[in-house]
Amino acid sequence: MDTPSAAVDIPARDAAAGSTIVATLSHSPGKLADVVDVFREHSVNMSRIRSRPSAVNAEEYDIEIDVNGVDEETFSSLITALPAKRVTHLATNDVPWFPRCEADLDESVKDVWGYGAELDADHPGFTDEAYRARREKFAETAYSTRHKDQMPRFEYNEEETATWRTIYTKLKELHPTHACKEFIAAFNLLEARGVYSPDTIPQLAEVSDFLQSSTGFRLRIAPGLISSRSFLNALAFRTFFCTSYIRHSSTPMYTPEPDVCHELLGHVPLFANLEFAQFSQAIGLASLGATDDDIKKLATLYWFTVEFGVTREEGGIRAYGAGLLSSFGELQYCTSDEPEHRPLDLEAAATQEYPITSFQPVYFVADSFANMATALHSWAMRLDRPFAVTFDPYTRRVIVLESKQEIMRLIKNVNSELSILTRVLEHVL
Ligand SMILES: [Fe+2]
To answer: Which DSSP letter does residue 25 get?
Structure first.
């Protein structure tokens, strides 16, 4: 039987602010009702409640409850009285909600800024009824696909495939002279495995499987442009929100929004590179529960790296950013002498102003993806967030390192991995 507050951490908190309480219960009837009773007895309203299987024990499940405006004394009494095996809570003020497991991304997929089924008046497909009907269909599929569902297959028509072929062929011509070597290697591998070809728009399910087997990254269908917070949050789970529709056929070399060409021909190949995958996930982990100001910084850093990053190779400047690799014009411009090339400094890149409707006047030059990932971890420690998070690759969940229990569990895992490595080394040396 669960005993009240078997393990309770009560970090300092601001009584006026909101908190998220996580109560771990055993799988037996009536447990949730007992928890609700304690809230009722303390006259504390739950502003949000969610449940999920525990990451620690298959016989347990976690109830995550948001509360607001609870004074310190009531809060302390409440969590002490909870009939749970473990109780933890975020000791932070106004920590924005963030996903803890992949199923939580079902919430994020609704957080669309634009270009779902609705198109702006200046969109090339705005007056094309057939195109708008297609877009609505793609958006509906994205909204209705849940984490538990299989990735749907998309049937692309001849006009759409022709647009893909035009873009694919033109961009690929520029790879040897304008793309970084890691991108070219991954692109060639996608072709060799039969996932990519100019004649067929790849199925996102197959692309996702390829990434999963390479670095653990996965694709999740997006209805349109996802908000910065939700988009970055998904990266923490090695999940990339990816659109499935294609730009209007009248402008094959231009799109005002992300489309399947931008995603597959710009973003996807490098998610198969381990160091780049680690860098991308590090941005995502830093974004979980981040302040709005820090989300802006992280989104700007993402812009100047994952979208518009360049690196220097023997032959000169080479692109690794998806916004460049999916743009015939800017890919040539970014490697020329015309724009300014500055060495990548994460703080400078995170605060640099940039235009969104014209070529970039400034690009930041990275030396290596491995160094970027290391530098990002250090830089992210300076962000205004009073807790740390880590990703559990076995359960694909995010662990908030706030309670002693979670930190001890992580140390045990690290010890276990170290002892395996030690034994391997003893055999090898
Ligand atoms: Fe993008």
So the answer is: E
267 in active site: yes
Q: Are residues 60 and 155 in the same domain?
A: no
Are residues 128 and 53 part of one domain?
A: no
- Do 148 and 282 lie in one domain? The reply is yes
Rounded Cα distance between 308 and 289, Å, is: 25
Q: Give pLDDT tens digits for 49-68.
A: 877 777 667 788 888 888 87
Going across the sheet that includes 48-53, the strands are 48-53, 60-67, 19-26, 86-89
- Is 326 in the active site? yes
For residue 11, what pLDDT is reported? 39
**Total number of domains in the chain:** 2
Catalytically annotated residue among 54, 262, 402, 403: 262
Question: What residues form DSSP beta bridges with 240?
Answer: 219
Residue 1, pLDDT > 60, answer no
Write out pLDDT tens, residues 279-305.
999 999 999 999 999 999 999 999 999
Q: Is 262 a catalytic residue?
A: yes
Annotated catalytic residue within 307, 330, 402, 406: 307
Helix (H) or strand (E) holding 319: strand 316-319
The token pair at 284 is 């995502």
Binding residue ranges for Fe cation: 262, 267, 307
Please choose, from the candidates 219, 191, 180, 221, the residue with its C-alpha nearest in 3D space to the C-alpha of residue 325. 180
Over residues 302-321, the mean pLDDT reads 95
Q: What is the largest CA-CA distance in the chain?
A: 71
Domain that holds residue 26: 19-89
Q: Which two tokens stand for residue 92?
A: 């932070």
Region 257-286: mean pLDDT is 96
In CATH, what number is assigned to the domain containing residue 38?
3.30.70.260
Q: Are 149 and 289 part of one and the same domain?
A: yes
Q: 323 alpha carbon to ligand 1 midpoint, in Å?
A: 6
Assess whether pLDDT exceeds 70 at residue 4.
Answer: no
- In this structure, the answer to whether residues 23 and 114 fall within a common structural domain is no
User: Is 259 inside a domain boundary?
Assistant: yes
For residues 93 and 14, the answer to whether their CB atoms sit within 8 Å is: yes
